[in-house]
Amino acid sequence: MSSYKETATRESCFQPGSTLCPGCMESVAFQNIGRVTDNGVKTIFTIGTSCGEVSTLAFPDVVAWGRGNAPPEAFEKSFSIIHNVFESAPTLAESIRDVADVLTSCGALQRPVQVLSFSGDGGAIAIGLRPLLHTIHRRTRITITVLVNEFFANTGFQYSPAATPFSDTSTTPAVGPTPGNLNMPLDYVHLAIAAGADLVAQISPAHGKLFMKTVEKSLECQGTAVLFVPAPCISGWKYDDGRTVELALLGARCGIFPTFIWERGQGGAVKDCPLEASERPRIEEFLAPQRRFAHLVETRKDTGEVVARPGREQTLEKLRAWTESNVERLYALAKLK
Ligand SMILES: Cc1ncc(C[n+]2csc(CCOP(=O)(O)OP(=O)(O)O)c2C)c(N)n1
Ligand code: SF4
User: Fold this and answer.
1) How far apart are CA 70 and CA 77, in angstroms?
2) With a 6 A CB cut-off, is 153 part of the ligand 1 pocket?
3) Which of 60, 65, 88, 118 has the most Cβ atoms closer than 10 angstroms to its Cβ?
4) Secondary structure E strands in 191-286
């Protein structure tokens, strides 16, 4: 493994010039993954239609991806990025790995390649759940990255199965007595383990060093590595500019999307999110800055305390109970070998 300092100061293949919203966590993820993959091995990315794709690859603004002035023959600096239909990024990455392995076995490819896919949570765990699970099931040697912003964002912030309970989305609106999304999230971490992944993590770029190390570890994995990356979305979560990293840390620490790293045969760990609820930040701290929860909580003007809006007390307690079960579930999954 490389030192953090060395990895963090590498050139990234993700350059300025995208049209991702300022403050979008996805650009931080791309920048840091781009640094880790600048490791002397040719990189091939696949990317399904998503904010990360339409905001970085749309013609004629294909300006976000590139490694400076490296010439095409600089194999160790080169990378490709292939856009695919919405739901198929893991499967396209699988086929690229298969072709690379065939070319290697017949001597036509002399040097290794590393293959990573990018999807949104809509692409990976809603419409693309089948390609995701079957690619994992075939134990393909790739890194699957799922940028979890909890919506189908670029098509209008529709609900996805990763949406936090009771969040307001365009297809689960908080209107009248209805408190937003009534579905409990799909247990995608467990699904990835059950499907056969060798490394499964839920990890935010806000946990900088750990994020880089986990991406690096995924590239060394001999089976399928799946990284779920919680991605606070300034436009859909509706928070003030400058709070992206703070919300990523709060969401992880309060138990909404705890940091989790697991390897087959070794088990795993939940990090920076204690099992004991009293040792975690209250979920209200995470909810209050986001207007997608404005129907649920309010800040008292006199004390500054965040409390349930009148009539929403039971809903807030239900969300607290789900958060508790979410943390307990990940601690239990960490014990699996
Ligand atoms: C089979 C199919 N259904 C729907 C669409 C339209 N579509 C394109 S991107 C998208 C939403 C993507 O959501 P997500 O994967 O979560 O990425 P995000 O936009 O949130 O980054 C949809 C519905 C499509 N391209 N193909
Ligand atoms: S809508 Fe959200 S996920 Fe999409 S670019 Fe903007 S902040 Fe990022």
Assistant:
1) 7
2) yes
3) 118
4) 199-202, 225-230, 259-263, 267-271
pTM, entire model: 0.97
Is residue 21 within 6 Å of ligand 2 at its C-beta? Answer: yes
The percentage of the chain sitting over the pLDDT mark of 70, rounded to a whole number, equals 99
Q: Is any ligand 1 atom within 6 A of the Cβ of residue 27?
A: no
Q: What is the pLDDT of residues 212-253, one digit of tens each?
A: 999 999 999 999 999 999 999 999 999 999 999 999 999 999
Tokens representing 197? Answer: 């992944």
What is the band of 10 on the pLDDT scale with cuts at 50, 70, 90?
very high
Full set of structural domains in the chain with CATH: 4-334 (3.40.50.970)
pLDDT tens digits for range 18-29: 999 999 999 999
Beta strands 225-230; 199-202: pairing state? parallel
Q: Which of 14, 18, 19, 20 to mutate to test the pocket of ligand 2 (most atoms within 8 A of CB)?
A: 20
For ligand 2, atom 5, which residue shows the shortest CA distance?
20
